[in-house]
Design brief:
about 350 residues; alpha/beta; Isopropylmalate Dehydrogenase; ten-stranded mixed beta sheet; two-stranded antiparallel sheet; about 40% helix; globular; binds 3-isopropylmalic acid; binds magnesium ion
């Protein structure tokens, strides 16, 4: 198969972890006899520095041409006081929208080797295996009207949470399809005791559910879900929710597994003419400017994102499994970065990347 992949290393540790992810992708492609065509583009703070905008047209063109995009991270402290329009994050929101990647999958899995790094007691976290399915193209992140207007005491900030029936139905179907190949349970998260968007959300989820009679459905309010994630995380299989709830709860999910540095994510859209599914793959962690450039960042979230790309965009299930297995081997060997609290001297970013590539 020919894999046509764009990389967007972005800011901070994004460049370092993406380098290791590409190393693993190259090794996997050659091992399994696939062609690999890599291109690289600018996104985020680095794009602002080089072109004046966080999401240059050239990047949009490259992303639309590629079958799949592998992203590092965006965000730099120097832009902290800028309005949303001028921030590196705007580049990420722009590429998610232009690619139409509406389903963000964030798997949370407890690895035995990492059980001690979890803030939760071992018996609570052992066996956790869920996917958070976050709607990624709608909701309060994109809703209009938005902005800050007026002045003095009446200066007012506005954001709008809005969802159409079609947007809710397609993310619901994605969640049910995923559940079918897992433990056959979907938990839909909302705030329907307060928000109209959530009332529509719950109604549409209930309407779609009978298409999947083999899958169990439950509804949970978002505040209760935040609590249940810590109390009894094992109860969850596929958990589906709107954009901002998913942003918040997936960070909570991330630490259950030991370190946010471990978590990959896949953002999926529609099928392309080439047969590949449009996809944007990125670790859940941010640009971590405090440790950037020091070869200390954990590249396993980015490497896991390569596995997700192979599986979801290219349907290469064996190859994806080989990458995940190599990651587990490296975890078990104890050759891991400082965030995973290794017993001996922490490994560097590039050592971990080399170890995973060698294990494939
Ligand atoms: C994430 C991040 C982004 C988001 C930021 C960087 C815009 O927090 O992917 O979870 O809020 O979606
Ligand atoms: Mg987030």
């Amino acid at each position: 198969m020919q894999l046509n992949v764009l990389t967007l290393p972005g800011d901070g540790i994004g460049t370092e972890v993406t380098r290791e992810a590409v190393k693993v992708l190259e090794k996997t492609a050659s091992k399994f006899g696939h062609g690999l065509k890599l291109s690289e583009g600018l996104l985020g703070g680095i794009a602002i520095h080089k072109t004046g905008t966080p999401f240059p047209d050239e990047t949009a063109r490259l992303a639309l041409d590629a079958d799949a995009t592998l992203m590092g991270a965006v965000g730099l402290p120097e832009f902290d006081n800028m309005p949303p329009e001028k921030r590196p994050e705007k580049g990420l929101l722009g590429i998610r929208k232009i690619l139409g990647v509406y389903a963000n999958l964030r798997p949370v899995k407890a690895y035995p080797a990492l059980i001690e790094s979890s803030p939760l007691k071992n018996n609570i976290v052992e066996g956790v295996d869920m996917i958070i399915v976050r709607e990624l193209n709608g909701g309060i992140y994109y809703g209009q009207p938005r902005g800050i207007e007026g002045s003095g005491e009446s200066e007012r900030g506005t954001n709008t949470m809005t969802y159409t029936r079609a947007e809710i139905a397609r993310i619901t179907r994605m969640a049910f399809h995923l559940a079918r190949n897992r433990r056959k349970k979907v938990t839909s998260v909302d705030k329907s005791n307060v928000l109209e968007t959530s009332q529509l959300w719950r109604r549409v989820v209930n309407e779609v559910a009978p298409e999947f009679p083999d899958v169990e459905l439950e509804h949970l309010l978002v505040d209760n879900c935040a609590m249940q994630l810590i109390l009894r995380p094992k109860q969850f299989d596929v958990v589906v929710m709107e954009n901002m709830f998913g942003d918040i709860l997936s960070d909570e999910g991330a630490v259950l597994a030991g370190s946010i540095g471990m978590l990959p994510s896949a953002s999926i859209g529609e099928k392309k003419a080439s047969g590949a599914w449009v996809g944007l793959y990125e670790p859940v962690h941010g640009s971590a400017p405090d440790i950037a450039g020091q070869n200390r960042a954990n590249p396993l979230g980015a490497i896991g994102s390569v596995a997700a790309m192979l599986e979801y965009s290219f349907g290469l299930v064996k190859e994806a499994a080989a990458v995940n297995k190599a990651v587990e081997d490296v975890l078990n060997s104890g050759q891991v970065t400082a965030d995973l609290k290794p017993k001996s001297k922490p490994a560097t970013t590039s050592e971990v990347g080399d170890a995973v590539a060698n294990a494939i």
